[in-house]
Write a structure and sequence with these properties.
Blueprint (H helix, E strand, L loop, with lengths): L7 H4 L29 H19 L4 H8 L3 E2 L4 H7 L8 H24 L7 H26 L21 H18 L14 H14 L3 H10 L27 E5 L11 H5 L13 E2 L3 H4 L22 H19 L6 H5 L6 E4 L3 E4 L52 E5 H16 L3 H13 L11 H16 L4 H8 L18 E3 L5 E5 L14 H6 L11
Amino acid sequence: MNFKIYIIAFLLILPAMACNKNFLDRAPYDGVGSSRIFENDANATLAVNGIYQSAAQTAFKDPFLNITTNLGPDSYSYGRAGANAISTGMSTSRAAGILNLYTNFYQPIMYANDVIAGLNNNEKVTEALRNRLTGEAKFFRGLCYFYLWNYFGEVVILDKPMPVDATYLPRSSVADVTALIISDFKDAAEKLPVSYASADLGRATSGAAIAMLGKTYLYLRRWPEAEAEFAKLLQEPYTYDLTDNFGDSFYWKTQNNKESVFELQYTNEAGMGSSFEKWYGNRSLGQGGEDYAEAATTALSVFTHRDGSAVNLSTIPKRNGYPAGNTGEVSYGKDLVKWYDTSFVNMDTRLHQSVILPGSTFYGNNNAYYKVYWPYSSYINADTPALRTTWYTQKQPAGVIPIRKFMTLGEENILNPSTCPTNFPLVRFADVLLMYAEAVNEARGPVPEVYDAVNRIRERAKIVDLAAGLGKDQMQRAIRLERYKELMFETHLYFDVKRWHIAHLTPAQDPVFSLNNDVLDFRFVSLSLKKVFREDRDYLFPIPGNERDLNPLLTQNPNWD
């Protein structure tokens, strides 16, 4: 990588919008010369706004979204070669997605370094604003290094503006990388405010920095320190709380709510939207998604009825009990859909707000309702037409379970799937509660505080409280299953199974979290897709070969080419 510095504020400045939806919309018609970027409050603020844009539109967009979720136990990609190559163990260090993931996170890091250096002892910028903007820059630098560390392990540390010829830098140890992350989040927590006025809603807060500091300690298994940080967010001056409706955090009209700790900000303006719908949306979405991510059928065994009882999956109709040919397939399909309709009732409310099961409807294209049937081809012209799923629906039928979470409804997304206005929450208060519960349980066992945190989330989902008297290991499993149900498709579960060091287990050892499983569709039929996760290799991505070609000091992670 050539670490030549670019000032993001000048590259991503957009014309001022007639209607300011958030602070990212407020920008002048013309760029500001680089010699004047830190000469006053307004210009310095623009520079930091650019870091937000770089994070939302580069580091945390593609391939972060279209790779990470598909690698976890909650999802898979049906038809996307790049994501499949990684999840099936066939990827190499030359994969474009891995290269882009690596380099994309360095862009906001370099811009943050410029801001930190430009504001240091700079009396042209108001002191209070200077401190806050520095805190925002350090938050993003820590955030990007947090993800680089969890993907690649040892990485190159850039903590100041680098000269153009600073190409050959070695990887730093995990200890040094995590020390920088912790330092940045601590400094950000001290400098950032608890909240902002509505015009600046979505900026990084002290609560966001504390949450990420606690998460860093959690990933390092420093349980008491993680507990201490998360505990701060459960009391004044912080007022985080769960929304009454689980789905409010994933719908663009109800985002930035009391549950939001930090979310990437998007609008449906050109160049300002999320690509979540593009990659994960079904084909009957308002503007047509590409449906490259599907819900794993393990969800059907994880979610329970509200009384805590499991769905009896053994009663699902089997195809071999019906006549051959299309007539038999249609009869089988009707019974299959009826089984879903009758089996998944009175459920944990998060299930139907996260996925679209057979028999369920979705409000999509042309402001019409679509339904998941089997077989698809027999219901294309039904009164409630068949919901279109993958590109392969007609030539290679598959009973995939589409994602409902994060999707717009009807024709709300007026441009295209790449301009989805739905924010992406990197930290929600529900996640904070579960991380707090995990840290406390690991440090002190299943004390009342652990039960309180988990049951608070279960109450919203309208399911019974956890059983009393759980042991430490039982509570550990309960928290992990709760994370699955609460955080599907939010990218966390892939990192969870890695930090728990259980991703390499076989399905016999762990039928929920194993990443060595045959992928099944909603008929429980194999899709001829098998996830592969090698213990000796796959806990880290490879350092991109293209980067090693440029920099001979970069070593490779174990057992990668």
